[in-house]
Design goal:
alpha/beta, Rossmann fold, Pantoate--beta-alanine Ligase, Chain: A,domain 2, six-stranded parallel β-sheet, three-stranded antiparallel β-sheet, 40% helix, globular, binds adenosine monophosphate
Length: 286
């Protein structure tokens, strides 16, 4: 596996690959990699000739400087894991490579209708930053397929909207959430959990399962209210537990009117913000 830090050197390598008409799968990440990320790498290795992963902690998607500063970083460990899983290129640029001062990296597409719930109001500017970095990375790598996790439901939905809206020549592939044995969704942030908070955080998965079991018998309001109570009683601080349409991200009031229904949640376990989701009805359709 090659590790490249400059846009020009990555593009030099990739242009030879493109000349040979080989397919490229791309996995954008912020590093501190775990088995969740590796599932995306493995899927890409299966479906493409060449797999490229990026590790870039994108400053424009952090609305709290503290969160950006505390984001775990270990490039040597990430590189080892990527190599072991068959990745061909690791792109690990500095911010100046992604956002050179003389380049306009703004993306002109209205995503407001997809950001007015859940992560949007709680993290102002976050998705604009995600769209900006993913678009820039797609422009650099020009992959055939882009791999993202269901773990960030609102994120991949927005990226799919951008791909369609801007007619980007890339296919989005969404991979299932990889969990620890006790159900906690794997996340780079989990390493920051205290022992006590690590112990209680599987309640998120249990609550999502409970919501799935009760979606056809209880009202949406009852499920959302009880779910928040379950999370808070266990010792988390719930930011939201919201049931939405799996495509439009509009709030669901009547399950029967929607093909795909998803419960999305964010909760604080001490100082660590955890997100998770579960499809309650139908399936992800992109
Ligand atoms: P991040 O490094 O957190 O920006 O994540 C990079 C990609 O990995 C995103 O598309 C995430 O949705 C995906 N991802 C993160 N955690 C998991 C997980 N537990 N299972 C599957 N995919 C994940």
């Amino acid at each position: 596996m090659r590790i490249l830090k400059r846009v020009t050197s990555l593009q030099r390598h990739l242009s030879t690959i493109k000349e040979e008409s080989l397919t490229i799968g791309f996995i954008p990440t912020m590093g501190a990699l775990h088995e969740g990320h590796m599932s995306l790498v493995q899927q890409s290795v299966k479906e493409n000739d060449i797999t490229v992963a990026s590790v870039f902690v994108n400053p424009t998607q952090f609305n709290q400087k503290d969160d950006l500063d505390k984001y775990p970083r270990d490039l040597a460990k990430d590189a080892k894991l990527l190599k072991k899983n068959g990745c061909d290129y690791l792109f690990a640029p500095l911010p100046s490579q992604i956002y050179p001062p003389d380049l306009n990296t703004n993306v002109y597409i209205d995503i407001v209708h997809l950001t007015d719930l859940m992560e949007g109001p709680n993290r102002p500017g976050h998705f604009e930053g995600v769209v900006q970095v993913v678009k820039r990375l797609i422009d650099i790598v020009e992959p055939d397929k882009l791999y993202m996790g269901q773990k960030d439901f609102q994120q991949f939905t927005i990226i799919q909207y951008v791909i369609k809206g801007l007619e980007l020549d890339v296919q989005l592939r969404v991979c299932p959430i990889i969990r620890e044995d006790d159900g906690l969704a794997m996340s780079s942030r989990n390493v920051r959990l205290t022992e006590k908070h690590r112990e209680i955080s599987p309640i998120i998965y249990k609550t999502l399962l409970w919501a799935k079991d009760n979606i056809l018998t209880e009202s949406i309001t009852t499920i959302e209210t009880k779910a928040v109570a379950m999370l808070n009683e266990a010792g988390l601080k719930t930011e939201y537990f919201t049931i939405v349409d799996g495509r439009t991200l509009d709030k669901v009031t009547n399950v029967e009117q929607h093909q795909t229904v998803v419960a999305c949640t964010a909760a604080w376990a001490g100082e660590v913000r955890l997100i998770d989701n579960m499809v309650l009805k139908g399936e992800i359709n992109i």
